[in-house]
Amino acid sequence: MPELRKDPIVGRWVIISKERGKRPSDFCVERTASRGGFCPFCPGNEHTTPPEVMAYGRDGGRPDGPGWTLRVTPNKFPALVIEGNLDKQGEGLYDKMNGIGAHEVIIESPQHNDTLASISVKKFAEVLQSYRDRLIDLSRDTRFKYILVFKNFGEKAGASLEHTHSQLIALPVVPELVVEELNGAREYFRYKERCVFCDIVRQELMQGSRVVTENPHFVAVTPYAPRSPFETWILPKRHVTSYVDMWPDEYWSLAQLFSETMKRLDLALCGCSYNFVLHTGPLRDRELDYYHWHFEIMPKLTLIAGFEWGSGFFINPTPPEDAAKYLREVQL
Amino acid sequence: MPELRKDPIVGRWVIISKERGKRPSDFCVERTASRGGFCPFCPGNEHTTPPEVMAYGRDGGRPDGPGWTLRVTPNKFPALVIEGNLDKQGEGLYDKMNGIGAHEVIIESPQHNDTLASISVKKFAEVLQSYRDRLIDLSRDTRFKYILVFKNFGEKAGASLEHTHSQLIALPVVPELVVEELNGAREYFRYKERCVFCDIVRQELMQGSRVVTENPHFVAVTPYAPRSPFETWILPKRHVTSYVDMWPDEYWSLAQLFSETMKRLDLALCGCSYNFVLHTGPLRDRELDYYHWHFEIMPKLTLIAGFEWGSGFFINPTPPEDAAKYLREVQL
Fold it and tell me: Domains along chain B?
């Protein structure tokens, strides 16, 4: 019999359809060949992106010149623009505001064909550090309430460019899904006086069946009520609200665990497309008893169809216990 | 400058990125050729589906025999199963219940290649009538709290079979997105003592810029804060909570307007994939001052990427005023 499972943070229900019981090989498709053509993110083409806002590894060289190991530029086709004032207006019963925000691209490596599954732990740590640096820098702009760091890998996940990159969007409002997490976590705390994420980490480590991998500071788990097959979360074991407030050695530890997780997903699912997002506390609430930053990784293996659109329910053919087992068994 | 718009019912924000200003032709792709092969929904193959629960047009013939014009059967691969009891259980901090429900397929026509854009108004009215009949029949099962009628058309929308069909899933809980609509509409009513959907219909008819088409009983509009380009809603002008509580002549009027809307979308977007859902009141709340049934049609023109997954925000490159204008200008 299928099982309905409820996400303990936001209360979202998921249908785990064990009977369909899909294995990683059921999802495997050919790795897509490189699309080729001109790449604006490759070294030598720095002039084709908007002027960079940050770069690592360039030893005293000029901005937008060669020698960088990681480079951040505004998105050439931004969803939101940085110039202007927030201007809230009504239109009859409707509400709107100017599309103020920032939209940046983090070019993770000069190597076009690098992926998060192929790069070294050191390189991965550099990417994680860049998220922190951009969060801290952009949080100075008081028009922004939230910054969402995310990555689209592969065509199915919405990546329009192949060269390895992440993105961030700074927003003038806290986005709905983060508000739902904050509200759900606050409710839980009010009742239990404990952080729901801390409780999840504790129960997952005790049960073990949904643990993909762990190290002294972090754990990667398939969540109890995953929206998609092989959805994987990475959480710090220690209670920290904001991603920017980790200790220096924790970034290195995170790089080790995140890198291993990406390798396991890549091998189990044949390099399939994925999205990930960083959920951290709102910019002006860096220390909350009830909120705990984490990454959510979503392999793109199923389609969002009418039922999901209309209900907010998800149908998942792979129980997370099975997914975690497959991922643990991958030979690295 | 892009614009942030807020949905007045659920409070969801959408980024309308006018600069990207996509026209229907930017989305047009080749109509996919028929996939061919064996079709379990074609006449003569009735024995390959689970036994039918309802059929129209068969004049005294035997069930699962020939002669039908519309046929409803349980889904062969159901997301939820009808046998058993609801059994709620905890698992540490997590909650689950048995996957009790119904999952049915409405085979809209015996003609394999019919589409909702090609069939007659009379045929369309038969499809709309079947939704009503199944909603009424299934609502007798007190284990169910909600029934979601939906349609996936085309591969990108998740249709695994080509033969024209809709689906419904009866659920033991009211789904999250409907709860959000109910809560938002209740809040609005508390403040204004008016139904937000009635206010939307009134403002849209007055402004006109987002109206696709209207008739004495219904209106088709592109919503103010659409999640996807060319998203279109169909609403009754009269306040009715439940789809099953329309007057008989209103189903005919709905068929006319819905049929015209599907033809306009089909021609403007070259037969693109789409989903639609019917949002009606919960089964045991058929008369609410604040809730108003409607259809939401979502053409599948953009991908859900990391930003949308992580934020619940949507980025839409086509302002709804432009979309409505294109749809009005289609020559039928």
Answer: 38-329 (3.30.428.10)
